[in-house]
Design a protein that fits this description.
about 575 residues, mainly alpha, 3-stranded mixed sheet, about 5% strand, binds zinc ion
Length: about 575
């Protein structure tokens, strides 16, 4: 927050790094410099983040065929824009963004005071465009079966010549690692060849630009504004930069996630609330188990495997059992950039240390202060951070029917992901092994088809419909989650009816609370973008999940001819 001190220092905190880059004499030093930028900043299966601006990104996670141990997963990177499409797509909109991006590169180099900024920007852009050509498309990256490629250290020299891998891995702290998972082998081969084929001077300019971009948040206002002008305004249409203190909270969250989380939990998440949510989870797991028993489409032996997986599902509520130790991270007052750099290196080393250790299934991938929830497929675990356990999702001072309708539906949603077409790829131990039969898949796909049609029918704008196919997995999880939450809520009543509150029956409270949990506002351009790229339907239509539950029709006496009415044969029941 000390902007005056940051202005006064100017570029000085970054000068030593820029001087080192300018002095790189040869390919070996270049490889070392590239390796030193590697960070643990990608995640294939949990938070699903395939993007890093560094040449490659590291994810340390379980061996997918031997889930007792960790392996380093290497992912493609090196682009300043979000995806290869931004470099290669021929549409006028993308061409316009490319022009603006190249101008942004030049503007950053000019702010840093270098000569020949425009010519350098053109070469840097061309380098990134060539990296983009080597990249694998997003849809392929998301396919676990295409990504699980094991390379020995030797394979890098044989299959991806051009980069001095010894120097690269040594600078990345991975010199003693013998086995890697290379998620996009073609990209690793292509990028390594570019390191050999393009002039050293271009790589040095590229690295200097990358260093400026990484540091921009912590540099004087001119750098912050230039970064926002491109990444905020051009790329996402955001009209105004958020208040500095809010960006500061995000930065602190990223650097000291579980330190902040521990304070958050002590203040806002008492043990009694954790116990209450854990009881809801037990009821939902039981309800889900009964649903599996009753399924008519799943083969008996698949059901046995599903029940076995459910029995060892690990559900984390609020915060991890064991807090991360940050004592090795040095925080220096007055050194914003240095603190950010040390925090990112601390996180990287923390991940490197996992290699060679037994897998810790109690590890969390979300901070307790984040309003979100996640299924960790290979760990067969779920995280429900403390921050999502507050109104409108959860509130111990209201009738429990409302909690089951809101956070209960989310709990059911996440549980169901362990047993859907994606969950079918990972067995109870997290091993990548399909435990469904062909017929199971066929039946599942047929139900999915009906839901695709249902969501294709929703039109947020006259010229733009929800994409039923893109959102089908999440819509299935919504139907399954709401159904399991309803069963669990009924189970919690032990055969009685819930008390009527303000004239509303328990079932009405349950469904109203579900609808309330989806109240959301979007600007039109942002909503249009989400409809194109988001695998979740817009919140309004997630609330319409109720149309597939018979209990909702009874609760509100919904009749044919009313807007949301579906005939019983059109209601989709997957689980
Ligand atoms: Zn989901």
């Amino acid at each position: 927050m000390d902007e005056a001190a940051i202005e006064a220092k100017g570029l000085a905190p970054l000068d030593p790094a820029l001087e080192r880059l300018a002095a790189i004499p040869d390919a070996q030093a270049l490889a070392r410099s590239l390796g030193s930028t590697m960070r643990a900043d990608v995640d294939v299966l949990n938070n699903t983040n395939f993007y890093t601006a560094n040449l490659f990104g590291l994810w340390v996670a379980q061996h997918l065929d031997d889930p007792g141990r960790y392996l380093p997963f290497l992912l493609q990177g090196g682009l300043g824009m979000p995806d290869r499409d931004y470099y290669l797509d021929a549409s006028p909109r993308m061409a316009e963004i490319r022009t603006r991006y190249q101008a942004h590169i030049a503007a950053v180099l000019k702010l840093a005071g270098g000569a020949d900024a425009d010519a350098k920007a053109a070469r840097i852009f061309e380098l990134e465009r060539l990296i983009a050509e080597a990249h694998v498309a997003r849809a392929d990256s998301e396919d676990v079966r295409k990504g699980n490629n094991h390379w020995t250290r030797r394979d890098f020299d044989d299959r991806a010549p051009g980069l001095d891998w010894q120097s690269y891995f040594s600078a990345a702290g991975l010199e003693s690692q013998k086995e890697f998972v290379v998620w996009q082998p073609g990209a690793v081969t292509g990028i390594a060849a570019l390191v050999r084929d393009l002039p050293l001077a271009t790589w040095k300019d590229y690295l200097a630009f990358r260093a400026l971009e990484r540091a921009a948040t912590y540099l004087p206002k001119a750098f912050v504004d230039e970064q926002f002008a491109f990444y905020g305004k051009v790329l996402t249409g955001t009209p105004k930069l958020r208040d500095r203190w809010k960006r500061g909270v995000d930065v602190t969250d990223a650097a000291l996630g579980e330190v902040v989380g521990k304070l958050y939990v002590a203040r806002w998440f008492p043990a009694a609330e954790k116990a209450r949510v854990e009881e809801m989870v037990r009821n939902e797991v039981a309800a889900f188990g009964r649903r599996i028993d009753r399924l008519d489409w799943m083969a008996p032996r698949t059901k046995l495997k599903a029940k076995a997986k459910l029995a060892v599902l690990r559900v984390g509520v609020g915060y991890p059992d064991k807090w991360r130790d940050y004592s090795a991270l040095e925080v220096v007052p007055g050194d914003a950039l240095g603190n950010a750099q040390r925090a990112s290196l601390f996180r990287y080393r923390w991940n490197l240390r996992k290699l060679g250790q037994p897998v810790d299934r109690g590890e969390w991938v979300m901070n307790p202060q984040l309003v979100n929830a996640v299924n960790l497929p290979a760990m067969n675990a779920l995280n429900f951070p403390a921050a999502i356990l507050q109104p409108p999702n959860f509130d111990p001072s209201r009738p429990s029917a409302m909690d089951y309708g809101a956070i209960g539906a989310t709990i059911g949603h996440e549980i169901s992901h362990s047993f859907d077409d994606q969950g079918a790829l990972f067995d109870a131990s997290g091993r990548l092994e399909n435990w469904w039969t062909k017929d199971d898949f066929a039946h599942f796909s047929a139900s999915a088809e009906a839901l695709v049609r249902q969501y294709d029918g929703y039109r947020p704008f006259p010229d733009l419909a929800v994409n039923g196919k893109l959102t089908v997995s999440e819509n299935i999880a919504d139907v399954a989650g709401l159904a399991a939450a309803y069963d669990a809520y009924r189970l919690s009543l032990g055969g009685n009816e819930a008390p009527t509150v303000q004239g509303l029956t328990g079932d009405q409270q349950f469904f109203l609370s579900f609808a309330q949990s989806w109240r959301t506002k979007f600007r039109e351009p942002a909503l249009r973008q989400r409809i194109v790229v988001d695998s979740h339907a817009p919140a309004e239509y997630r609330a319409d999940t109720v149309r597939n539950l018979d209990a909702w029709y009874t609760a509100f006496s919904v009749k044919p001819g009313q807007a949301l009415y579906l005939a019983p044969k059109d209601r989709v029941r997957v689980w």
